Amino acid sequence: MRRSILLMTAAMFGFSFANTANSVSDGYAGSDACKACHLEIYEKLMQSGHPYKIQRVRGAPPSYPAHTSPGIPNPPADTTWDDVTYVIGGYGWKARFMDKEGYILTGKENRQYNLENRFLATEANWTGYSAKKAPRKPYTCGTCHTTGWVATGEAGPHQDDLPGIHGTWSEPGVRCEACHGPAAEHAKDPESGKPTTRENCGECHRRSDVTKIDAKGGLVKHHEQYEDFLASPHKNFLCTTCHDPHKGTRYQQGGYKGEDATCKRCHTNIEIKLAAKAKFQCRDCHMPYVGKSAMAIKIQTSNGAIPQGDIKSHIFRIMADPAWNMFTDDGKFVRVDSDGKAYLSVERTCLTCHSAQNKDWAAANAIKIHGSL
Fold this sequence. Notes:
Blueprint lengths: L1 H11 L18 H7 L1 H7 L8 E3 L29 E4 L4 E5 L5 E2 L1 E8 L10 E5 L6 E2 L4 H4 E2 L2 E2 L15 E2 L2 E2 L3 H5 L3 H5 L26 E2 L2 E3 L3 H6 L32 H4 L15 H5 L2 E4 L4 E5 L2 E5 L2 E2 L33 H6 L7 H12 L3
Parallel strand pairs: 13-14
Antiparallel strand pairs: 1-2, 2-3, 3-5, 4-7, 5-6, 8-11, 9-10, 12-13, 14-17, 15-16
Helix pairs in contact: 1-2, 2-3
């Protein structure tokens, strides 16, 4: 009976199980099967950036949902869209490109397309990517870019028979089953084989050693949010405490639940005691842009040039001591104390706005905002 209802529901949306990306035998039903019963959640997800981590292109630019990414006007300068098989990203920050054989294009220029960033006041532009490596780079990033990724290495098999792709997938992009697990059995019988609801954001929003926050050039590297989080005072929270995982955080998608439902829900006794800062949001100071995905700028201050990136920090905790250096001496990691706690430094939280002041001034006035840190 349940199977019949599911099939009838699927038919309403023009979907049949025979047309899924993979057969039921491999365990994946495909996001269209999820859509049949979970339409509202599916539609939210498809507005976010997750499904567009990688897209197949066939002689034309990749497409993105209305009112989100402006897209990519042209392929790399020495190519046409017929020379590109897949676009990696293009939603929110940047895009990279895969050639006719599935290798990622690398080089000193015209290999990465950076989208406009209004906060940094930077225009869309082309840059190089992985210029010190070979002209082409195998695609091995499917664990976090696709759904149902199976790493196969150079020997293959290869997705779409493209030798540069060292793996296969059920669906391109991060779709339903990338987080909830294979759901073919659930699609056959909703009461059995239920998908997991265990939060696993940290499987992708991280690099390698989760006890180290990787950095470069005075900024945290991208997809380090989980490492940030583990070194923060909120390390025991779930990501879903503050985020709706089915919505994006870019383009006003509502993925961040807002301060009334997050910060102010717990920090009920915290007040902004400086009238000049009364309209500030908690994230203005406690989540500065100290990470970089695509672009960064340098802000000239009385303490020298301070890098500002395009990714918000999830460290939250601010160190009032002006002598605190947020990064290790070699610049490769965020500094932590003996308890593994990371801290934002005052020049990153204060001087990027108050550029005419110095760190001593920032430390003294940071304390005044709440009375203490």
